[in-house]
Amino acid sequence: MKIITYNVNGLRSALSKGFTEWLEAEQPDVICIQETKAQPDQIPTLELEALGYKSYFFSAEKKGYSGVGILTRITPDHVEYGMDMPVYDREGRFIRADYGDLSIASIYHPSGTSGDERQAFKMTWLEDFRHYAVKLAKKHKKLILCGDYNICHTPIDIHDPIRNADSSGFLPEEREWMTLFLRSGFTDSFRYLHPEERNQYTWWSFRANARTNNKGWRIDYCMITPDVVPLLQEAFILPKIKHSDHCPTGIIIR
């Protein structure tokens, strides 16, 4: 089973850059997407269905902002929209699909780059999300939390850890949260299989030829619970796929 997560930075923009052609060639069983920036009536679900994907989306109330979705070749038993937390759900940040005893979520964590207010919102979200995820993992033992976490965990996850030490996404308190999150019972699937691999990133700034020079950040993850770890066969990043300022990353499980 191939599961991919991908911040598309605007689904309609990605579609105009060949997203459906790539999807047809890549053939993931499930793809979790973030930052759709689209309302339900703006999403070409028929086009996706023609490729064999059922689609489920949870949009933000604010048009052209945030939004998450799951495209799946396997019909889920249940789809959960949001976390039953209105302050976050109105921003369209969480959707989950259940397949028997396996549960897969698409999550878009807030960014704090726009200023102190949103950074504070991000930190509050992070702790609320961690508590939510821990409770969810008790109910769904085989849980995969895919998405844009907007945090690099360690220095090898970012091209320039020294100069970015005070940047949102690599702040000490964010990195400490990630350590705590992992200690709460979750595993970074990519680092589990590639513990020392460097220069593996999932996001690049549009500025200063960052992507051409591979000056990136690894901020997109497939986090897995202990019951999923034995099923993990492969974890990968696809940096050559360029419909967005992010690239897809994913896992293959038995």
Summarize the structure in words.
The chain has 254 residues and is α+β, with helices and mostly antiparallel strands. The chain has 7 helices and 14 strands. The protein has helices at 11-16, 19-26, 45-49, 86-89, 116-139, 172-183, 189-193; strands at residues 2-7, 30-34, 54-58, 68-72, 78-81, 94-99, 102-108, 142-148, 187-188, 203-204, 216-217, 220-224, 232-237, 249-253. Strands 3-4-2-1-14-13 form a 6-stranded mixed sheet. Strands 5-6-7-8-12-9 form a 6-stranded mixed sheet. Strands 10-11 form a two-stranded antiparallel ribbon. Helix 5 runs parallel beside helix 6 (172-183). The longest helix is centred in the middle third of the chain and has 24 residues, at 116-139. It is globular and about 45 Å long. The chain starts with a strand and ends with a strand.
Ordered list of secondary-structure elements with their pairings:
Blueprint: E1 2-7, H1 11-16, H2 19-26, E2 30-34, H3 45-49, E3 54-58, E4 68-72, E5 78-81, H4 86-89, E6 94-99, E7 102-108, H5 116-139, E8 142-148, H6 172-183, E9 187-188, H7 189-193, E10 203-204, E11 216-217, E12 220-224, E13 232-237, E14 249-253
Parallel strand pairs: 1-2, 7-8
Antiparallel strand pairs: 1-14, 2-4, 3-4, 5-6, 6-7, 8-12, 9-12, 10-11, 13-14
Helix pairs in contact: 5-6
Order of helices and strands: EHHEHEEEHEEHEHEHEEEEE
In terms of DSSP E residues, the strand content is 25-35%
How far apart the termini lie comes to: 6 Å
CA-based gyration radius: 17 Å
Low-confidence stretches: none
Q: Which class of secondary structure composition applies to the elements? A: alpha+beta
List the strand order in the largest sheet: 3-4-2-1-14-13
Count of helical segments? 7
Quaternary structure state of the chains depicted? single chain
Give the overall form.
globular
User: What do the pLDDT scores average to?
Assistant: 97
Largest sheet: 6 strands, mixed
E-strand count: 14
